[in-house]
Structures are given as C-alpha cells and as structure tokens.
Amino acid sequence: MATLTLGSTIGFSHSSSSSDISAYCIPSSTTRFCFSSIILSPLKLQKRTSRRRARALIAVKMAAQAFQEVLPPALTSVSEPPPIFDGTTRLYISYTCPYAQRVWITRNCKGLQNKIQLVPINLQDRPSWYKEKVYPPNKVPALEHNNEVKGESLDLIKYIDSNFEGPSLFPDEPGKREFAEELINYVNSFTGSVVSSFKGDGNEADVAFDYIESALSKYGDGPFFLGQFSLVDIAYAPFIERFRPFLLEVKTYDITAGRPKLAAWIEEMNKIKGYQQTRRDPQEHVDSYKKRFLSRL
Ligand SMILES: N[C@@H](CCC(=O)N[C@@H](CS)C(=O)NCC(=O)O)C(=O)O
C-alpha cells in the first residue's frame, strides 16, 4: 500500500495489485471507500460505475488541487546545473514545449509535485551542461530517475504512470487498453496532418479532427477519450491547445464546429487542475505558431 502525501490534508492510498484509477481508495479520517468484486445487478453496476468514475475524477482533481506550485524560473546558459544524480527525481521541461507539457501534466495529475522536481530549461539560451551531463539528445522533456535519464514524452508519461504512486491514468480493461494504444500511436500522425494543413486553407485538417471526434464518441461513460480521464487525453491536450486558437485566428477554422464531442472534451480538459497549471495564453501560442509556420509557407 503506497501512500501519497498531498499537502498535509489529503492522502490517497491504493492497492498495489491494481492500476485502475477507479480502484483507488480515498480515505478520510473516518471513511474509506473501497471496491470489492461482488456480483451486482446491472442497475447497481451502473450506479457503482458512475460513483467510481466520479471518485476517480475527484482523485485526479485533488491530486493536482492540493498544490498551487510556484514555478521556478527557466535555467539559461549562465545557470549552474542542479546536483545531477544526487537521488532527486527531476523532470526537465521547457514551459513552452508541448511534449514536455504532456509529462508535466502527468506529474501534476498524479500529485507528484513533491516527488518530481521541475527543472525548466530555456531552450533559446540552453545551458551547455544539459547536453553534456543530463540528456545528450539535448531535447526536453527528460526525466532523471534512479540514476538514469530518459526521454520521449509518450514513453515518459507511461513510465511515470507505472513507476510512481498516485491515481492510475491508464485503464485496466483490455478493450480500453487496446484503444488507448491505438490513440497514442496515432497522435504523431494527427499532429503531422494538422501541421501540414497550415499550408492550405485549414479544411485539410478535417480528416484528422473527424478522427478525434469519432474516437471521443466511442465510450459514453465520460467526456474523455476512454470515457474517464487518461494518458490519452494528456497526449493530445497540449497540441489541441495550440491548434485551436491558431487555426481559428489564421485560417478562421473552428475545430469544434460540428464536433460537439471535441467541444465538450476541451471544456472538461480545461477543468483538470493538473492541466490548468501547465496551460499558456492562447495568444502566445498563436504568435509562436505564426512565427514558426507562416514564415515557411
Ligand atoms: N519526440 C520528442 C520530441 C521532443 C522535442 O522535440 N522537444 C523540443 C522542444 S518542444 C526540443 O527539445 N527541441 C530542442 C531541439 O530540438 O534542439 C518527445 O516526444 O519527447
């Protein structure tokens, strides 16, 4: 039984045999909610599922809510390196990088702000020690953990979910696991298709966003890709956060028009505290994408 301390008020504990977020127990001083495997009638099962879902979402919200973190300034070429490999777990990010944002959201949603230290890097004025001593590919994100440094955002979100405490962000159910893998495997094609559409009038992105709309329609037990909030939402959110305002302003293309599931997903994502802490001003994204993509067209 691992216990995670969130501030001084909330603790989550979970059975190490289960990685299902809905199997988490949320103890208070007098009450403990656990779920056993007794056989239930369909109606009871439905009620129980919605209670579990509600508690699962509460767990994610609380995990992030307990912390209102003061974000450290980004390190530059004149900054000293942290004491690397001293046993501290560090997540190297850039505040503006969507890949790093995925891992940052995962850390927040699991309530790991005390366990994984954020080390923001200024990519425009990168310290030389980052490549030399921390992560030779010289990219963010990178995770320093157990005397090793690992990269690649999609691997890192899974690694953090499996190797740290906190609410599980990957489903147990085989059907959902398979769909989760499919969606995670698709995310690079999705972002690639949308970025290619910047050359046209925006409508070229229809197929990619229609895929998202249809994926969001698969499970009716919640507004997220797998019904409940998961790593899949985390994989897509940083990019949709950028694509939406950019396509709207530059191509007058509203990605949510005629896509009610996507509109609802964005609304629900924006309520997730662990994500809110990582979001940036939409206008900042638009300006940065204009500089990056419009000059190349
Ligand atoms: N495939 C990597 C991509 C990471 C990546 O490209 N990060 C960018 C910042 S958004 C970076 O570090 N760029 C620095 C560089 O390429 O020199 C991942 O998913 O983690």
TrEMBL record:
One GO BP annotation of this record: response to toxic substance
InterPro entries in the cross-refs: Glutathione-S-Trfase_C_sf, Glutathione_S-Trfase_N, GSTL1/2/3, Thioredoxin-like_sf
SUPFAM superfamilies attached to this UniProt entry: GST C-terminal domain-like (SSF47616), Thioredoxin-like (SSF52833)
GO cellular component: peroxisome
Extent of the signal sequence: none
Single Gene Ontology MF annotation: glutathione transferase activity
Domain GST N-terminal, residue spans: 87-168
Alphabetized Gene3D superfamilies for the sequence: 1.20.1050.10, Glutaredoxin (3.40.30.10)
Domain of life: Eukaryota
The protein's name in its UniProt record: Protein IN2-1 homolog B isoform X2
Gene: LOC103488732
